[in-house]
Design goal:
It contains 12 helices and 2 strands, in the order ααααααααββαααα. By secondary structure, it is mainly α. The protein has a two-stranded antiparallel sheet with strand order 1-2.
């Protein structure tokens, strides 16, 4: 019995995606889910090891993300479907875990290395006036690039980022953390993983007082008044630090004004 090569499978998926764009056939969509189900299995396996949730439940939730990706994918954009779909699958699983209040475990060694990476990054920036690459950072931490990327993935998923919360921003009206992300397709829990990592890393480069304000507003969904009471500062100070912090994050994220 002849086997299907990777290239043949990609070609078949591409053809089906083209047909689905035109017909929106449920039969074609189900066939695409079947052909790409390996992406769901991979994500479900990863998260099962992180939180010990039921594997079948994670598969079911991840499948919803895959269906969303199929429905939103556009061949004209030139993206590889697998790269496009993974953030949707991952985001759906993350959303499910957070709704259930599941805590993702982070090994102590990962926590120590993450804290060390913040110090290393700051020193590197002062010396070279730029952010270190993953390779440079991993070398400074004496670990492999793969280990560093795994640490980043675990760290960035430890808590939700409330990206869509509107925040009063002085004279400029309202803004939200999600506006710092260049691709609006991945807002909220569907945010592309690399953008989530960049955003989380940028947060940790801010001075403590500014970071605490942004974390209170965006990560903990507190009002500016609640953050002020929690930190023992005025609401005006909170508002100023939000504006300052968002400005600094824009620079760190490389976001340009239109």
């Amino acid at each position: 019995m002849p086997t299907t090569t990777s290239e043949e499978l990609k070609h078949e998926i591409c053809q089906l995606l083209r047909e689905y764009e035109q017909s929106r056939s449920e039969t074609i969509r189900n066939e695409l889910v079947k052909l790409n189900f390996g992406l769901v299995r991979k994500e479900a396996h990863y998260w099962m090891n992180q939180c010990r949730e039921n594997y079948d439940d994670l598969l079911q939730v991840g499948s919803l993300g895959l269906i969303r990706a199929i429905e939103k994918f556009q061949l004209s954009k030139g993206n590889a479907f697998s790269s496009f779909a993974i953030p949707y699958i991952r985001g759906e699983i993350q959303h499910y875990l957070r709704d259930k209040g599941v805590t993702v475990r982070i090994p102590r060694r990962y926590l120590a290395l993450q804290e060390q990476s913040v110090r290393v990054t700051r020193c590197f920036q002062e010396k070279h006036n730029r952010q270190p690459t993953d390779t440079e950072l991993a070398a400074a931490l004496a670990i492999s690039v793969e280990q560093w990327q795994e640490i980043k993935l675990a760290w960035v998923n430890r808590a939700p980022l409330s990206l869509d919360v509107p925040v009063l921003d002085g004279e400029e009206g309202t803004t939200c953390l999600g506006e710092l992300v260049p691709d609006p397709r991945y807002r909220s829990f569907q945010l592309a993983q690399e953008d989530r990592i960049r955003l989380q890393q940028a947060l940790f480069q801010l001075e403590k007082c500014t970071r605490e304000v942004l974390e209170g507003v965006f990560l903990q969904d507190l009002t500016q008044k609640q953050v002020a009471e929690l930190l023992g500062i005025s609401v005006v100070t909170v508002s100023r630090r939000v504006k300052k912090g968002l400005g600094l994050l824009k620079n760190l994220m490389g976001v340009t004004e239109d």
